Amino acid sequence: MCRFIETIRIDNGRVCNLPYHNRRLNDTRAHFWPESTPLQLSDHLFPGCKAGIVKARVVYGEKGIEDASYSSYVMRHVHSLALIQADDIDYTYKSTGREPLNRLFALRGVCDDILIVKQGLLTDTSIANIAFYNGTHWYTPTRPLLKGTKRAALLEEGILQEKDIRPENLSSFSTVRLFNAMIDWGELELPVRNIIP
């Protein structure tokens, strides 16, 4: 059985989005190990008071938390996305087994990252959920590869709306944003014209 991970942003000593990480961790454990006891990540995190953005990587499995490591975080800039078709990919649970995503990422050509199309619908990049702006609203794909913790928070706050988005719908939007637990909302965006078929 593959091990699972939570990647958590610590901003100047403050742990971000912790309830959503707890929920996903415990939902994953309940799915694979129905008899498992719920865990609280706060019992296993030691954020310290280091200035700046720190990435906490928590690895867990059937027996609970196996490892927690910390590193300074530097965001990878993305200026272009290559559309990549992958109808059979499955990354429903955030695991250490990223080989299928890594294989797709290797097909990006001259682009910085990929935007995965599954069964005719846009999903995610190799590292982030996405949202598209049409001048009025931000829409995120209804069926992402991974239901990210930041995505869950933005949906609950009403900042995002879900929508099935196909490659042929891209011309309806001006901007695409990438976001995840480490990339905050609004930190990384690019024009839709920089998505390369």
UniProtKB/TrEMBL annotation:
Domain of life, source organism: Bacteria
Pfam families: Aminotran_4
Position of the signal peptide: none
Keywords for this protein: Aminotransferase, Transferase
SUPFAM superfamilies: D-aminoacid aminotransferase-like PLP-dependent enzymes (SSF56752)
UniProt key word DNA-binding: no
UniProt entry tagged with the keyword Membrane: no
GO function terms (MF aspect): transaminase activity
Name this protein carries in UniProt: Aminotransferase class IV family protein
Source organism (scientific name): Bacteroides muris
